[in-house]
Design goal:
The chain contains three helices and 20 strands. With 356 residues, it is mainly beta. The strands form four sheets. Strands 2, 3, 4, 5, 6, 7, 8, 9 and 10 form a nine-stranded antiparallel β-sheet that branches. Strands 12, 13, 14, 16, 17, 19 and 20 form a seven-stranded antiparallel β-sheet that branches. The structure holds calcium ion (CA) (2 copies).
């Protein structure tokens, strides 16, 4: 009760000072990965203004380019593929370039790109960045054949809003590149801290400590429920039929939740749909999304306004055996009252007075 009263008081103070901040500065501790980068993938930021979790993706260019599937598949949070069948076999003059425009400028510390593997991996690649536009790109990473799950850590972080990724295949039999996901992470050692209008994937950040998943009812395969929060597109959770199957994700503390993404394995689906429910206490849930027709690939759900929640309950209608690889929840952690963050969160409309 005390915390709620404080929050209401702070919101009132914000209204009085007429702050107009839009982006939220995270000045509370942010988790870092082993390489010293924030654990938020800035390619998967929820942009409230645009109503999307994806960056703007430009078309593919380059001699001999021919694409199958959408370029958005490379930033959809799922194991879907952006596939290039361009050029002729073993022709080093052929390549493809794809351009990403982020929601904001970030000081990038590391990139991650993943592939289906084998002959579908490039034989060389290059990543370039810019803060002003695609006419003035600076190469920052280049290499030969990347690993299936390739990490590139920059010695010196670079500011980037525009990112260009070029890949080339010189496989002797064909050029057949399957880029499954492209990620970028901001440096954690430099200020200012990263900002956002509505939030990154809370599950990936583990911003408030461990995030857990628990099967609660229905029939599931023997797959671990941890597979939907392990940030690995090659592990998954499948239902086992016989009725609805439910799993709960605990975010560790209450967040202002804004969007969700269900990343299915290689085009699989939940044929009878799904439901998403939110709860602050883990006992009383409110449904915020329900679809009884088939859903799959990278299904994204956006809420009209943020909802305070710590627990997210996901229902696999009918217990479909489609393989769900990743379940992402976008939002911002609600900090302790009386911090500068709370003032900015309030100004951005992410916190609201609640019933006492
Ligand atoms: Ca993908
Ligand atoms: Ca997984």
């Amino acid at each position: 009760m005390t915390a709620i009263l404080k929050r209401v008081a702070v919101v009132a103070a914000v209204a009085a000072t007429q702050l107009t901040a839009v982006a939220v500065k995270f000045d509370y501790p942010f988790p870092l990965d082993a390489n010293g980068a924030y654990t938020a993938n800035v390619m998967r930021e929820y942009n409230a203004g645009a109503g999307t979790t994806k960056p703007v993706v430009g078309g593919a260019t380059g001699p001999g380019v021919s694409l199958e599937y959408s370029l958005l598949n490379s930033v959809d949070g799922a194991g879907e593929k952006t596939q290039w069948n361009g050029g002729t076999a073993n022709d080093p003059t052929k390549y493809a370039t794809v351009q990403y425009t982020l929601a904001d400028t970030y000081l990038i510390k590391e990139f991650n790109h993943s592939y289906l593997g084998g002959n579908t991996t490039p034989t060389s690649y290059q990543i370039s960045v810019s803060t002003t536009g695609f006419g003035a790109m600076t190469p920052v990473v280049s290499g030969g054949t990347p690993g299936t799950n390739q990490w590139d850590v920059l010695t010196t972080p670079v500011a980037a809003k525009y990112i260009e990724y070029r890949w080339q295949g010189t496989n002797p039999s064909y050029q057949y590149i399957m880029l499954q996901e492209f990620r970028a992470y901001a440096d954690g050692a430099n200020l200012p801290a990263i900002t956002t209008t509505a939030g990154f994937d809370v599950v990936a950040m583990r911003a408030s400590g461990p995030v857990t998943a628990t099967k609660v009812s229905g029939n599931w395969q023997y797959d671990s429920e941890n597979n939907i929060i392990d940030l690995d597109q090659f592990t998954y959770l499948r239902g086992a039929g016989g009725g609805d199957a439910l799993v709960v994700v605990d975010l560790g503390k209450t967040h202002a939740v804004q969007a969700f993404s269900l990343g299915f394995y290689q085009g699989q689906t939940w044929g009878s749909g799904a439901r998403i429910e939110l709860s602050e206490d883990g006992a009383s849930y409110t449904s915020v999304f329900s679809q009884t027709t088939s859903l799959g690939s990278a299904k994204e759900v956006y809420l009209a306004s943020p909802v305070d929640a710590r627990y997210v309950r996901l229902t696999n209608y009918g217990g479909s055996n489609g393989a769900l690889s990743d379940f992402q929840v976008f939002g911002v952690a609600i900090p302790e009252p009386a911090s500068a963050s709370l003032l900015l969160l309030s100004a951005a409309g992410l916190l609201r007075p609640r019933r006492g």
